[in-house]
Structure formats: C-alpha cells, structure tokens
Amino acid sequence: MTYPPPLTGKTIVVTRPHDQADALAGGIRQAGGAAYCFPLLEISPCQDSTPLQEAANRLASATLAIFVSANAVRYTMPVLREIWPEHLIAVATGPGTAEALAAAGISRCLLPAEHFDSEGLLALPELAPDRVVGQEILLFKGEGGRKLLAATLRERGATVLPVPVYQRDAPKEGMDEFLTRLAAHKFDAITLSSSEALRHLLELAAERPETLPCLYRLPLFTSHPRVALHAREAGFSHVICANANDIGLLAGLCAYNWQLP
Length: 261
Description:
This protein is of the alpha/beta class. It has 13 helices and eleven strands. The strands form two sheets. Strands 3-8-7-4-5-6 form a six-stranded mixed β-sheet. Strands 2-1-9-10-11 form a five-stranded parallel β-sheet, with helices on both faces.
C-alpha cells in the first residue's frame, strides 16, 4: 500500500525572515504540504556601525568571539573576515550559527552539545569562571535581547563588549491577508523560532481579537524550549519543541498526530 506524504493537505505557516525561510518551506513542500511564508521578524543591519568598528579594533586583544545567531555572523563577517586573527576562538549558539561561521571560513568554533541558547553557552567548559576571568570577550548580537549571557560572563570576571550588528522589526506587509486566512481556519500549524517573533504574532492577532481562538488552536512548533514555555504561558494548547534547526522542525511536523483535537 502506498501512503501519501506526511504533510499532504496541511498548510504550515513559516515565520522565519524571508532570506531564512527557504529550507524549511522547501522541506514542507517535499513532504506534501503547503508552506505559507509570513515573516514575523524583518532583519536588517544596525544603522550605527560604531560598535562593529570598535570590535574590529579589539580583535587582537580578545580571546573569544560569541555569535548569538546566524544573523550575527551575516552582518559581522563581511567586515571582520579579512582581519580575523588566528588566535581568536569563535563561539556559536547553535548548529545554524556554526554553519554560518563555517561558510564564512571560520572553522574553529565552540558549540554547546545541547540547549542552544545562553544557558547552553554558559555551560561550556571554556566559559567557566576559572577560564574566562580576566579575558576579553566580544559578543555579536542583535539590538536588545536577553542580558543573561553578558551579565553572567562579567560576574565570572570577563570583560565583555556587546556588539549589536542587526535589528529586528515587526512585519510591515501581509498582515491583513494573514489574519483573514487565520480567521478562516486556513492554517494547520505554525512554526516559530524566537520569543520576539511570538510577541509580534500575539500583538498582531490582538488587533483582531476574533482571530485569537483560531491562533491558539493551532499546533505550534519550535526548536527552542524557552519559546515553547512562553507559547504555553500565552495560551497555546499544542506546543511541540522539536530538535534544533530546520531538520528537527520538519521531523516534528511529519511525526505529529494531526488527529489531535
């Protein structure tokens, strides 16, 4: 007996930024589903390049360079790649960030074994208090965001230079169409990759309160435990925390029991 692909007849909302959505959207289509791409974050470089220039001047004295995301790599390496010193060790939050570093030519990279977030980074032996005390660390990141990583490293005795290289904005297009489709029950699941994207989603749906029950009934897939926790606290009833990266999300979608109420 031949079975249809696992996502046949399902429409999955992919909320990654435009230039990061292709892999997951393509996997959904290969699995028989339809991918509705609605970026909840628009990523762009910071207008003020002063922090990045300051980081460039401090490469020689720094011992570690932490990249919190693939976007941090994307907006940093075009400036720093040609002057990257051999002694400087890169640290990646997760596999996607490590892949972006490798593509930029940085193969010497530390990576958590699990928990691809600030907590996972802080558990690395190389970031233990006895290892980072007195060290200078560059932290490439987006504007705003969590303060845990920098604050904890400073408590451990390191000198930390946060370097914001990109900014994240709420979506500016496609909102009415998305909400109309949501209210008409045209979606079967939604994928989310950050707590900030979740916040934008909830703020958007709140503009048309009748869409909130439609949103909360959808299975929500994420690869981040913190996002999963926030989604449950917000009222989502079916939250699936898959393995990290797009492969894990796609596997979670394909394995999901779509008969759940």
